[in-house]
TrEMBL record:
Belongs to the ABC-2 integral membrane protein family. GO terms for cellular component: plasma membrane. This is ABC-2 type transport system permease protein. GO terms for molecular function: ABC-type transporter activity.
């Protein structure tokens, strides 16, 4: 064990001496969580909208004030005619225009039915749909309180909406598990594969194999520093999420640690497998980025809902480890999940680890022969 410890220490010193790589590995997760938390968000906040108020009466101004007071919208422009409305949308001055019809207050008082038109810039389809949904929700509540449609007294039904686990619908709640999944698998798998491939590329792997170290000790010595780095990054992301973005931690730290350990081991085994099929560091990096980064972002449910994907992509997502990691972390952090809620993910991780290690051993023996 003394020889193993000396080898681990040597690998750690090698990483520490590479200041630029070390800084990237430590700063990248912090930068990403801040970017996703503050910049990349699916929430509507102070979106610039235009108001085409044909009525210019008290009821119309009430509705405008209600939209502005919501905090979701900022009245960016008062519009006087249809041509100005189209020009404002084309120039990007506003993202949506609310058209309040003439005689708005009078028709409201008579309960004769009022149609408020929402004209959105759909060049960004998802954003436009969200703007329309937010505005429709506000106008619907205004309708119920003031009887715009004349149905408030006929249908005495009140809809009460409650959002469990993320009441404010904050996008950063999804960012924390997603960034952890991406960072851990990239650092553990990519850096491990590059580290081992470097030894083969420089011809020093043969020297290590004839050294007093056993093959498993060489592998452990290579991956141990990246386990520590991965844990540091996981803790960094969690602390930023919890203390800066107020992401809740409702479940057990014990089960969160277990799921992180298994995910890191899975990523390391994947990195070892990549190193057995890569002839150079460049190839290892390319395979790691192509096989890990894009699938983690696109097919894990991190950004795009899996349920909305085509059948083929849903099938591909089912063999992506980050998908199950994100599900498990969300269950633990937001729903106070225990073993019974994550046992499937634990089994899937164990199966992936066994499969990748078996393939790595097979490929390694073939290369030696």
């Amino acid at each position: 064990m003394k020889k193993l410890w000396v080898f681990i220490k040597k690998e750690a010193i090698h990483i520490i001496r590479d200041k630029r790589t070390l800084m990237v590995l430590l700063i990248m997760p912090l930068a990403q969580i801040l970017i996703f938390g503050y910049v990349i968000t699916t929430e509507i906040n102070q979106a610039r909208i235009g108001i085409f108020n044909k009525a210019n009466d008290y009821a119309g101004y009430q509705l405008v004030n209600r939209l502005a007071a919501s905090g979701y919208f900022k009245i960016g422009k008062m519009i006087d005619n249809p041509e100005e409305m189209e020009a404002s949308l084309r120039k990007g001055e506003v993202r949506m225009v609310v058209v309040i019809p003439s005689e708005f207050g009078k028709r409201q008082a008579e309960s004769s039915g009022v149609e408020v038109q929402l004209v959105a810039d759909a060049s960004e389809a998802n954003s436009a749909q969200m703007l329309v949904n937010y505005a429709r929700s506000i106008i619907t509540r205004f309708d119920a309180e003031n009887g715009l449609s004349g149905r408030a007294s006929e249908i005495p039904v009140t809809i009460e909406t409650r959002m469990f686990y993320n009441p404010a619908l904050k996008g950063v709640f999804m960012s924390v598990p997603g960034i952890m999944a991406m960072i851990l698998i990239l650092i553990s798998a990519m850096m491990t594969s590059i580290s081992i491939t470097r030894e083969k590329e420089y011809g020093s792997m043969e020297i290590l194999l004839v050294s007093p170290l056993k093959p498993w000790q060489i592998i452990v010595g290579k991956v141990a520093p990246y386990i520590i780095l991965s844990f540091i990054n996981a803790v960094t992301i969690l602390l930023v999420g919890i203390f800066i973005f107020k992401v809740p931690m409702e479940g057990s730290w014990w089960w969160l640690t277990i799921i992180n350990i298994l995910y890191i081991l899975l990523s390391l085994s994947l990195g070892i497998f990549i190193s057995t099929v890569s002839a150079s560091q460049m190839v290892a990096m390319f395979i790691s980025l192509f096989a890990l980064l894009l699938p983690t972002v696109l097919l894990s449910g991190f950004i795009y809902p899996i349920e909305n994907m085509p059948v083929l992509l849903r099938w591909l997502s089912s063999i992506m480890p980050p998908r199950y990691y994100i599900q498990a972390v969300k269950s633990i952090m937001f729903k106070a999940g225990s073993f019974m809620s994550i046992w499937k993910e634990l089994l899937i991780f164990a199966a992936f680890i066994v499969a990748f290690m078996a393939l790595s051993i097979k490929n390694f023996k073939v290369r030696l022969s």
